[in-house]
Amino acid sequence: MYVGVEPNVDDANVCQDLLDSTDGVEGSVLVGKWPDCASKLHDKQFDVILFIHCLYHVVDVGEALDEALCLLKPQGQVIVFIVSYKMFY
């Protein structure tokens, strides 16, 4: 099961349409910002949580990561991808 969080409703709808049209994939996209959307999810629900080029848009990174840790199953992982300045040179 995949769960995405997207603040832009149009982009969230595109993502949801892609999930719905992909055979064998179950998922949903929450419209909103992280960690505000965390309250819509259940603790210890996920094996992996990915932050892909998004943490620099979060006001309180510590709170965002704390919320993510609460949602992980035992032995779960948080994986963070951030932009490197070298990507632009």
Describe the structure in brief.
This is Methyltransferase type 11 domain-containing protein. The chain has helices at 9-20, 61-71, and strands at 2-6, 27-31, 46-52, 72-81.
Descriptive report:
The protein has 2 domains: 1-32, no CATH class; 34-89, no CATH class. 26% of the residues lie in helices and 30% in strands. The chain has helices at residues 9-20, 61-71; strands at 2-6, 27-31, 46-52, 72-81. Strands 1-2 form a two-stranded parallel sheet. Strands 3-4 form a two-stranded parallel sheet. Strand 3 (46-52), helix 2 (61-71) and strand 4 form a beta-alpha-beta unit. The protein starts with a strand and ends in an 8-residue tail after the last strand. The model has no long low-confidence stretch (mean pLDDT 93).
